[in-house]
Amino acid sequence: MVKLTIEVPEEAFSALRETPERFAAEMRFAAAVQWYQEGRISGSKAGQIAGMTRLEFLDELARRQLDVIKIDLDALRRELAGG
To answer: pTM above 0.85?
Structure first.
């Protein structure tokens, strides 16, 4: 796993009422959602980035009322092939 370090103003945590750890988890999830909805990554890869299984990721999308299935035929083939 690659460790990425970014600088975030301390005020961001207090404004959002989040711990740095929870903030990092939300950032990973937000990035995974964005890239998944753009069709750049599969649901499995999105789950991995978000620290979840594919099903947990899709369940979380549904819980947040975000598009769960937004996939083209080529992406579906890659997904079914395990990629």
So the answer is: no
